[in-house]
Amino acid sequence: MKPYARLTWPLFLELIRLPAKLASLLPFLFGVSYAALSGPLNWGNTLVYLIGQMSIAVFVTGFNNVQDFYKAKDVEYRRTQNIIGRAHLNPRHILALMGAFLTVACLAGLVLVWRTNLSLLVIGGAGIFVAIFYTFGPVPLSRMPCGELLAGLCEGFGTIFIAYFVNQVQPPATLTLSWSQFSGYLDLAVTLRLLVVALPIVILDGTVMFADNICDLDQDVKNQRFTLPYYLTKAQALRIYPWLPVAAFLALVVGVAAGLLPWPLVLTLLTGPIVARNTRGFLAKQSKMATFGLAIHTLLLVAAAEVGLLWVSLWLRSGVIFGNLID
């Protein structure tokens, strides 16, 4: 039997899809920046959450590659397209490495629970459940038409909510336990406000998954993965696709008009021509290698613009950009 290849840095970065990790980082930065609008940041909590968030992001991609390798029905896909088979990597070693990243994420989460309150254990636990069972188990979530919703809510809203949560003196959710009872509290007003301000990133994060599933549609059917584009049909999915960035921009306008986002964020609309060009490029050709990156580029562009403009808003509000951020 041919010996397994060594996991080099280039292979590791391909395994975890490094550009996609930026898609995890920017919602974190947005949540932290939005939290800075309401008061000084807790830099200790922010650093711990950054470690946990990026660890779980690496785990999800690597673990998904291993599970796709094991569950593949198409031998050609397993041998030539999945990185585990194509690079002849040892799937057990990759699984162990991803387990280490999951352990780091869980430890970081427990530290944050200790530094905040028990409600974060429930919130983070739900995210880790989705991360594991997205491709694991007898009926993985990735084989259902809910990947886009889960990607948007977990990677988009969930990341932003927790980044905001860990930087508040009075978090928007609490959970207390005693020997005879427990009590919970959720500030619905704050939660709904965060959902509205996060909605552009939530939509565009889901759009990345939508584009991924459109590109992989034929291969997914061979491997018995029936995602949303399968149920919609490719033609209908492509009719819906260009309206998703439009919906994200409309959500942004609503957030600014409602006073939930600072007015400079309306300048994010200036990215519109580039977003439109990316959308046209994807509609012209749906290819994982050639055009899927355009969906990621759109998410990164809009999210980066929002983060940058939040810092501009901080500067306009405080006069000195770091004046509001010293804990």
Automatic annotation (TrEMBL):
It is a multi-pass membrane protein. This is 1,4-dihydroxy-2-naphthoate octaprenyltransferase. GO terms for molecular function: prenyltransferase activity. It is found in: Membrane. It holds the Pfam family UbiA. CDD domains: PT_UbiA_UBIAD1. One of its GO terms (cellular component) is membrane. The chain crosses the membrane at residues 20-37, 43-63, 94-114, 120-137, 149-166, 186-204, 240-263, 292-316. It comes from the Bacteria. Keywords: Membrane, Menaquinone biosynthesis, Transferase, Transmembrane, Transmembrane helix. GO terms for biological process: menaquinone biosynthetic process; vitamin K biosynthetic process. Pathway: Quinol/quinone metabolism; menaquinone biosynthesis. It comes from Lacticaseibacillus nasuensis JCM 17158.
